[in-house]
Design a protein that fits this description.
Layout: E1 14-17, H1 31-39, E2 60-69, E3 75-81, E4 92-93, E5 96-98, H2 106-118, E6 125-130, E7 134-135, E8 140-149, E9 162-169, H3 170-173, E10 180-186, E11 189-195, E12 198-199, E13 204-205, H4 209-223
Parallel strand pairs: 2-8
Antiparallel strand pairs: 1-10, 2-3, 2-5, 3-4, 3-9, 6-8, 7-8, 10-11, 12-13
């Protein structure tokens, strides 16, 4: 539902949370455990595949980088898009965008977009695998490219696209007690989505829509026993 005009997800009541589900154990969020999980993935199915479409067009291949910063406490690097963007303006997102003809593959797309949007140098980035494609409300077929990021990088946000760059603890996002479910009837349809609001020192970071769905799929991938 991201990108729907005149739709404010913060105003929609919470229908439920998933606090009854187990959180991913902290030892499974460390670098080597994450490498092993993507190198030898379990049998699993993503919970979320797409948003309700608001734009009818042929799907556009795209990729985002899911940067897991390997600090003492692993963190997820996220951006807040500027309000001037034509789609998903003002929303929390992973760095990413549509594939270019010159990109070798979608992993190359994710790396290029991360460098263009936030100045993340690829020498700090170790790609460990992809999550299943997620189709957004704006008809982008997004491949989430998961990567371990070595601390020491410097971010330089592109002021046209990115209002801010921030980090959220991976453990917070991999705890389903923080996954809130919302339901609303909008434009004649029943729509459901997740939000994962995180309060940092500056503001509440309202993670929802496609970004929350992809994080939930990462949770589903990591929680399955090997």
């Amino acid at each position: 539902m991201s990108g729907i005009p005149a739709f404010d997800p913060r105003l929609i009541p919470v229908a439920s949370t998933d606090q009854h589900l187990p959180q991913v154990h902290s030892e499974h969020l460390l670098g080597q455990a994450l490498r092993q999980r993507f190198a030898n993935p379990p049998a699993w199915s993503p919970e979320f595949h797409s948003d309700a479409r608001s734009i009818q067009r042929s799907p556009v291949p795209a990729a985002v980088l899911v940067p897991l910063v390997m600090r003492q406490e692993p963190m997820v690097l996220l951006t807040e898009r500027t309000t001037r963007m034509s789609s998903h303006s003002g929303q929390v997102a992973f760095p990413g965008g549509k594939a270019d003809a010159d990109d070798a593959d979608l992993q190359a797309t994710a790396l290029r977009e991360a460098e263009e949007e936030i100045g993340l140098n690829s020498r700090f980035v170790e790609i460990i695998g992809n999550l299943p494609i997620y189709t957004t409300v704006t008809a982008f077929e997004v491949t989430p490219v998961v990567a371990l990021v070595e601390p020491g990088f410097v971010v330089t946000p592109n002021p046209i696209e990115v209002a801010s760059v921030f980090e959220v603890p991976l453990a917070f996002l991999m705890n389903p007690a923080n996954h809130r479910r919302h339901v609303v009837h909008w434009q004649g349809e029943r729509r459901e989505w997740l939000s994962m609001p995180y309060q940092d020192a500056d503001d509440e970071r309202f993670i929802w829509g496609a970004t929350a769905a992809m994080l939930r799929n990462l949770y589903s991938f990591l929680r399955v026993p090997l």
